[in-house]
């Protein structure tokens, strides 16, 4: 016997062997992968033929072939069920959200947008016993959520729970966006969604490291002053004195200015207000004066890429027209979601915006 239900057929030219083969063929149709000689099999077959017990030999051979075939099917069945299950569940989520997958489908990556148009990649690891065994999840977020799972759960349930988790982190990311846009952030240069700290310049070669609580971003942050200048000691004393005045009903930036008793410097490019920014698409500082443009006629750039290493300015009208020409752009209500033409970071522009 050979694996997968095949066996070696001896090269016998006797009439007895031909008779046995014909009888065996009438009972079962056999597909031969290869015909090889086997001395042991010849001896075995001749002994069986001499005893004229062909029917019993045929029965034994059939049982052996069926057992081997059943074992092989038993090995393939779980794998086939796993692949069929995963394919059907990806279909439910939407193939347009799948950005990467392993050949054996044990690893999947989905692209998910949050309410503000930020792009998130959720990686899912599946065990071959799925869905009995829950998947493992990783993503670029401050902390991962606790997955609620049962044998009846599906991949779409994972996506829904992840989207719910993203919803709870919106205020956290909005707070960090306000810091990035309004203060002089020196580190990190390219923040990730999981990054919860910001190092800002507060002037006079003094720096402040802020650690934002992802679960309560409006609360008093943990902070660390860094400088070789003696003035930093004075800032520490001011912070200790005023930190009790931190109020959650005020914005993070307002609380920070109150606690430090000073107006913090903004990003270097924002400080240069006297320089008109050119649009990164039409390369003009102002839109043409045209009655069809309405209130936007002759206006300057009104949209800036959020990426600190880019900060490219655009007319929202030009950026909207450019996004419409890109096939990967998504539209939700009156908002276009796409990527910056310079750094590929996510951008979101309102249609017919009058910013």
UniProtKB/TrEMBL annotation:
One Gene Ontology BP term is: interstrand cross-link repair
Return the SUPFAM superfamilies for the record.
RING/U-box
Question: Got a GO cellular component term for this one?
Answer: Fanconi anaemia nuclear complex
Q: Which CDD domains match?
A: DRWD-C_FANCL, DRWD-N_FANCL, RING-CH-C4HC3_FANCL
- What GO MF annotations does this protein's record show? ubiquitin protein ligase activity
Which residue range or ranges hold the FANCL UBC-like domain? 86-168, 171-266
Where would I find the FANCL C-terminal domain in this sequence? 275-351
* Protein's recorded name: FANCL C-terminal domain-containing protein
Q: Which organism is it from?
A: Nyssa sinensis
């Amino acid at each position: 016997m050979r694996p997968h239900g095949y066996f070696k057929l001896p090269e016998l030219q006797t009439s007895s062997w031909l008779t046995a083969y014909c009888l065996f063929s009438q009972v079962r149709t056999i597909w031969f992968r290869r015909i090889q000689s086997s001395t042991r099999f010849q001896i075995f077959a001749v002994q069986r033929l001499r005893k004229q017990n062909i029917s019993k030999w045929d029965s034994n051979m059939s049982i052996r072939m069926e057992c081997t075939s059943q074992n092989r099917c038993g090995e393939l069945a779980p794998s086939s069920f796993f692949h069929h299950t995963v394919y059907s569940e990806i279909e439910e989520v939407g193939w347009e959200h799948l950005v990467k997958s392993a050949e054996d489908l044990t690893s999947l990556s989905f692209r998910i947008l949050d309410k503000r148009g930020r792009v998130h990649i959720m990686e899912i690891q599946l065990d071959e016993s799925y869905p009995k065994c829950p998947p493992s999840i990783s993503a670029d977020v401050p902390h991962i959520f606790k997955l609620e799972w049962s044998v009846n759960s599906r991949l779409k349930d994972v996506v829904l729970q992840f989207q719910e988790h993203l919803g709870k982190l919106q205020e956290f990311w909005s707070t960090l966006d306000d810091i990035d846009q309004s203060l002089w952030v020196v580190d990190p240069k390219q923040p990730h969604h999981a990054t919860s700290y910001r190092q800002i310049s507060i002037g006079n070669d003094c720096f402040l490291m802020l650690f934002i609580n992802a679960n309560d971003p409006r609360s008093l942050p943990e902070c660390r002053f860094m400088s070789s200048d003696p003035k930093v000691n004075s800032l520490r004393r001011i912070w200790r004195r005023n930190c009790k005045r931190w109020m959650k009903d005020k914005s993070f930036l307002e609380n920070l200015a109150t606690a430090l008793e000073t107006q913090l410097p903004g990003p270097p490019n924002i400080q240069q207000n006297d320089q008109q920014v050119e649009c990164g698409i039409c390369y003009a500082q102002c839109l043409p004066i045209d009655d069809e443009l309405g209130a936007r006629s002759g206006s300057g750039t009104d949209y800036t890429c959020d990426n600190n290493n880019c900060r490219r300015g655009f007319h929202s009208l030009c950026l909207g027209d450019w996004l419409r020409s890109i096939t990967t752009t998504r539209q939700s209500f009156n908002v276009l979601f796409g990527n910056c033409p310079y750094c590929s970071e996510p951008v979101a522009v309102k249609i017919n915006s009058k910013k």
